[in-house]
Design goal:
The complex is a heterodimer. Chain A is mainly α. Chain A folds into 3 domains: 200 residues, no CATH class; 155 residues, no CATH class; 144 residues, no CATH class. Chain A contains 21 helices and no strands. In chain A, helix 10 packs across helix 16 and helix 16 crosses helix 17. Chain A is globular and about 75 Å long. Chain B is mainly alpha-helical. The longest helix of chain B is centred in the middle third of the chain and has 15 residues. Chain B is globular, with a radius of gyration of 11 Å. Classes of the chains: A mainly alpha, B mainly alpha. Chains A and B meet through helix 4, helix 12, helix 13 and helix 14 of A and helix 2 of B.
Chain lengths: 517, 75
C-alpha cells in the first residue's frame, strides 16, 4: 500500500484543520494528540498498546527522575557532601534510565530484531549439524517503532542530564511521541524545541497555510515526479542484477540514490508542511547531501536528525566514558585518542546500521561507513600536508569538485549495498561494474515522456540546490509573495503533479523505504 | 587555569592558547579534540560535562573553559 500513509496524513491534516479552528487555543495540543491517536489506532490496530506503553514509561521515568533530583536541596550542602549526594542522586537516576531502556529498547528488540536473531542463531546451529526450525514471531510492527523509541529515549536522557525538567502532563508527553506527521519517517524531534510550539496552539494563518501546502506539494512533487519514476529504473536493474554489468549497474545505483533521496526527503517535506500549517517547525533532515566533500559531511547533511541523535546520545557518552578513558590510559596519547574515537564510531555505526533494519546487510552498511570514517581520519592529515606543501588551498574549486565526486561514488557504493537483496548480491553487483552485461533498454521500463519528465524534474531539483548554494532562499521568496501569487504557485505545482506525476495503473510505486524502519 | 593549560597542551602541543578567543571557531579545537578535552576535564576536576554544555562559547577560550569547570564544580 504505497500511498496508504500519504493518504492518512492528508486526511489527518484536513480533519485536524477543521477541529483545530473551532477549539480553544489551550486545548489544541489535545486535538493534535487525540487525532494522532485515533489514526494510530486505525493504522496500528492492537499494536498501538506498544506506543502507549512507551508514552507511559517515558512520562513516569521523567517524573521519577525529577522527584529524585528534588529530594535533596544540594545547594544547601557543603562541597564535599554535595559531591557525594550528587553521585547518589545520579546513581538512582541511572537505575531509572536503565529500567526505561530495558523496557523500551526491549520492546524494539523483540518486535523488530527477534526474528533476525532467531534466524541467524538457527542458521549457525544448523551449520554445525543441528536441525532446528527457527521460532518466528508473527506480529506486525507498530507504526514508527524505530522513530518514536529513539525520540522518547532522547527525552528521558535529556531529563537525566538535567537539560530540562520532566513534563508533568502525560498528554504533552503523549503528543511528543505520537504526533502523526513525524511518526512515519521522522524527523527525530527534541522535546525542548517541539513542545513550546505544540502547546502554543497558534491560530492557523494564511501564511502558514500556504507555506505548509507549498511544502506538502513540493514533497509530493519529489515523490510523484522523481522517486516513482527513478524506482522503476532501479527496480529493473536490481531485480535482474545478474544480467547486467558496467554502466547499467551504476545507472541502477544512481537511480536508487535519486529515488531514496526524493522519496525520503519528499515524505519529510510533507511532514514539515503539515506541521507548518499548525505553526510547528519540525527539524530539517536534509541539507544538500550531494555536495558533501567527505562521507562525514554527507551524514551531517543526510538524515540529519538521526546523525544528531546518535552523536548526542551514543557517540558522546561512549567517547567520554570513564571506562574508555581508563582502558586507554596506558597507551600513548595519540594511540589512546585513535582507539577512543574508533571504538565510539564503531558503536555508533553498528547501531546506525542495525537501526536501518534487522539484517546482516544493514549491519554491513553501517560498518561500511565506519570504515570510511576511520580511513578518512587516518588519511586526511597526510592529504592536508601534501596540499599545504603544494600550496593547494582547500577552497580550490577543482579540489572541491574531485572531493564531491569521490564522496558521491562512495555513497553510491553504500546505496547499492542498501538496495541489494543481500551482501552476496551486492558483491556480485560491484564485480559486475567491471564486466559487460546484457544491453539495458531503458525504453522498455519507461516511456520517452516519462524519461523526459524525470530528467526535467531532476533538473528542477538541481536548480533548487544551485539556488540554495548561491544563497537564494526560495522559501523566503515564496513567503514574500502576495496571497494570490502564492495561490497560483501552489495551483501550478498541484497541476504539474496531477498531469505529469507518475501514479495510477501504469506505475507500480514502491512502499516508502524509510517508512519500513 | 594552569591545569587546563596543561591538558590543552597535551591534546594540541605547540599551540599558543593564551589570549585565543576562537579555539572552536578557528578549528584549533576540533570535535574530536573536544571529546578528548571533555573526557580529561571530567576526570581531572571530577565534574560532568554533558552535551548540554557542548556549545562553542564554552570552549572558544581557556577562560570560558575555566568558567565552565568552575560552574560545574560549584553545582
Amino acid at each position: 500500500m504505497p500511498y496508504f500513509m500519504m493518504t492518512m496524513l492528508l486526511i489527518f491534516t484536513a480533519v485536524t484543520i477543521a477541529i483545530y479552528a473551532v477549539c480553544p487555543r489551550r486545548q489544541r495540543y489535545i486535538v493534535l494528540l487525540a487525532i494522532s491517536l485515533a489514526f494510530l489506532c486505525y493504522i496500528s490496530k492492537f499494536t498501538v498498546v506498544f506506543i502507549l506503553a512507551t508514552v507511559l514509561t517515558t512520562f513516569l521515568s521523567g517524573i521519577i527522575m525529577d522527584k529524585i533530583t528534588q529530594s535533596v536541596d544540594i545547594k544547601a550542602l557543603d562541597k564535599e557532601v554535595r559531591k557525594k549526594v550528587k553521585a547518589k542522586i545520579k546513581q538512582k537516576k541511572q537505575i531509572v534510565v536503565l529500567s526505561y531502556i530495558v523496557i523500551n529498547v526491549g520492546i524494539l528488540l523483540i518486535l523488530k530484531y527477534f526474528n533476525f536473531f532467531a534466524l541467524t542463531t538457527t542458521n549457525i546451529l544448523n551449520k554445525f549439524g543441528g536441525n532446528y526450525e527457527p521460532f518466528i514471531l508473527k506480529i506486525a510492527l507498530p507504526l514508527g517503532l524505530s522513530y518514536y523509541t529513539l525520540q522518547a529515549l532522547g527525552y528521558v536522557i535529556d531529563v537525566f542530564r538535567g537539560k530540562y525538567k520532566a513534563e508533568k502532563n502525560i498528554l504533552k508527553v503523549g503528543l511528543f511521541i505520537c504526533f502523526l506527521p513525524q511518526l512515519h519517517e521522522g524527523p527525530f524531534g527534541r522535546y525542548d524545541l517541539l513542545m513550546p510550539q505544540m502547546e502554543k496552539g497558534d491560530n492557523i494563518n494564511v501564511n502558514n497555510l500556504y507555506n505548509g501546502i507549498a511544502k506538502i506539494l513540493w514533497g509530493l512533487f519529489k515523490i510523484f515526479m522523481v522517486a516513482n519514476r527513478a524506482s522503476m529504473i532501479s527496480d529493473a536493474v536490481f531485480k535482474d542484477n545478474g544480467k547486467y554489468g558496467g554502466v547499467t549497474i551504476l545507472l541502477g545505483g544512481v537511480a536508487f540514490t535519486v529515488q531514496l533521496y526524493a522519496e525520503f526527503s519528499g515524505y519529510i517535506d510533507i511532514a514539515r508542511g503539515i506541521s507548518k500549517i499548525f505553526n510547528i517547525e519540525l527539524s530539517k533532515n536534509f541539507d544538500l547531501p550531494f555536495i558533501s566533500k567527505n562521507v562525514g559531511e554527507f551524514w551531517r547533511r543526510w538524515h540529519i536528525s538521526l546523525g544528531a541523535w546518535f552523536r548526542d546520545y551514543v557517540f558522546y557518552p561512549v567517547s567520554t566514558s570513564k571506562f574508555l578513558r581508563k582502558s586507554t590510559q596506558k597507551l600513548s596519547f595519540n594511540i589512546s585518542n585513535f582507539v577512543t574515537i574508533t571504538i565510539s564510531l564503531l558503536v555508533v555505526w553498528f547501531l546506525t546500521g542495525l537501526w536501518h533494519g534487522a539484517s546482516i546487510k544493514y549491519v554491513c552498511y553501517g560498518l561500511y561507513y565506519f570504515i570510511l570514517m576511520i580511513l578518512f581520519n587516518i588519511i586526511s592529515p597526510y592529504v592536508e600536508k601534501i596540499l599545504a606543501k603544494n600550496n593547494i588551498s582547500n577552497d580550490n574549486k577543482i579540489l572541491i569538485s574531485i572531493r564531491v565526486v569521490k564522496t558521491f561514488l562512495l555513497v553510491l557504493i553504500g546505496m547499492i549495498m542498501f538496495r541489494a537483496e543481500n551482501m552476496s548480491v551486492f558483491g556480485n553487483m560491484i564485480l559486475s561494474i567491471f564486466k559487460n552485461g546484457e544491453y539495458f533498454n531503458l525504453l522498455k521500463i519507461l516511456e520517452m515522456q516519462d524519461i523526459l519528465a524525470l530528467i526535467v524534474s531532476i533538473g528542477i531539483l538541481i536548480l533548487g540546490a544551485v539556488a540554495k548554494i548561491k544563497g537564494i532562499d526560495i522559501e523566503d521568496k515564496f513567503n514574500n509573495l502576495s496571497s494570490i501569487k502564492k495561490y497560483f504557485v501552489c495551483f501550478a505545482l498541484f497541476t504539474v503533479i496531477v498531469v505529469f506525476g507518475a501514479y495510477g495503473l501504469d506505475y507500480l510505486p514502491p512502499d516508502p523505504i524509510y517508512g519500513g524502519f | 587555569m594552569e591545569r587546563i593549560y596543561k591538558i590543552l597542551e597535551e591534546i594540541i602541543p605547540n599551540t599558543d592558547f593564551k589570549g585565543a578567543t576562537n579555539l572552536v571557531d578557528a578549528k584549533i579545537l576540533t570535535s574530536l579534540n573536544i571529546v578528548r578535552l571533555v573526557s580529561m576535564l571530567n576526570e581531572e576536576f571530577d565534574i560532568e560535562i554533558t552535551p548540554i554544555h557542548l556549545i562553542p562559547e564554552n570552549f572558544n577560550s581557556v577562560e570560558s573553559i575555566y568558567n565552565l569547570v568552575v560552574e560545574l564544580d560549584g553545582e
